[in-house]
Amino acid sequence: MMSRERVRNALQKQPVDRVPIFMWFHPQTARRLAAMLEISVAHVPEAMGNDVRQAWVNNNHAMEGIVHDRDGERHEDWWGIRWVKQYGFNQIERFPLTGADRERVLAYGFPSDHREELLNLMRPVVNRRGDFWIGCDVSPCIFEMYWRLRGMEDAMLDIVGDPQLADEMFRRCADFSIALGEAACDRYPLDWYWTGDDVAGQKGMMLSPRTWRALVKPHLARVFEVGRKRGLPVAYHCCGALRPIIGDLVDIGLDVLNPVQCNCPGMDAIELKREFGSRIAFMGGVDTQYLLPNGTPAEVRRATQRLIEGMASDGGGYILAASHTISPETPDDNIFAMYEVAGITREEIYDSAAWIRVRETMARDRRGGASARVSDRGPGEHSAS
Question: Which end of the chain has fewer CB within 10 Å, C or N?
Answer without folding.
Answer: N
